[in-house]
Amino acid sequence: MALSKTRVAYAAGFFDGEGHISIPFRNRPNRRTKRTSILRLDIGQAVVEPLRIVKSTLGGSIDLGWKRRKLYRWYLSDNKAALALQAMLPYLVVKRAEAEVALAYWAKRQASKGSGKRGNPVTMPLAQQEHYANALKELRRLKSFKYRQASEELINVTEAK
Questions:
Q1: pLDDT bracket for residue 69 (50, 70, 90)
Q2: Distance between CA atoms of 160 and 114, rounded to whole angstroms?
Q3: What is the CATH number of the domain that holds 134?
Q4: For residues 10 and 57, is the Cβ–Cβ distance under 8 A?
Q5: CA atoms of 88 and 145, how far apart (whole Å)
Q6: Eight-state DSSP code of residue 113
Q7: The whole model's pTM is what?
Q8: Measured on CA atoms in the order 108, 78, 58, 53, is the torsion positive or negative?
Q9: In whole angstroms, how far apart are CA 57 and each of 17, 18, 21, 92, 137?
Q10: Residue 22 belongs to what H/E stretch?
Q11: How far is CA 59 from the centre of its chain?
Q12: Residue 42 needs a FRET pair 20 to 30 A away by CA distance; which of 19, 53, 92, 123 works?
């Protein structure tokens, strides 16, 4: 299916402002690999219409939850998330570095897939998976600090006038 550049650009812009890229870990007690990570994209929003556009463009699912108020959440995981990031990458500004780290993680994870049965378990060392997850967290922390610092400087300049 060919993706419309306009729709992908809209989805990327919306994701750039409201979205979240993460590499969460899950425990799998009955598997050979007890703990592993996944690639996850999500957007939380009080209004469902923009999420429907994102879903129709990139795929994924929308569910309804409650955190002090009604909240719709679009999400996408693993290979579909990597494909969505690749499609959005040319249009991302704020989350571009995070997307690049996430895509590097996914490429490394895919290259480390085993050849056994039961869904080709990942042989990527847990420490390496944690490295990519921590790199994403650090990028978000630095970005948050940078924006906070820039807004404080702007306030100081405005107050000095």
A1: confident
A2: 61
A3: 3.10.28.10
A4: yes
A5: 25
A6: B
A7: 0.81
A8: negative
A9: 17, 16, 18, 16, 27
A10: strand 19-22
A11: 14
A12: 123
- Tell me the three state secondary structure of residue 11: helix
User: pLDDT for 38-62, tens place per residue?
Assistant: 999 999 999 999 999 999 999 999 9
What is the number of domains present in the chain? 1
> Given the structure tokens 């990139």, which residue do they identify?
58
Q: Quote the domain boundaries for residue 30.
A: 5-160
For residue 152, give both structure tokens: 């404080």
How many C-beta atoms lie closer than 10 Å to residue 123's C-beta?
13
Query: Tokens for 145?
Result: 């600090």
Angle between helices 78-88 and 49-58 (to 10 degrees): 100
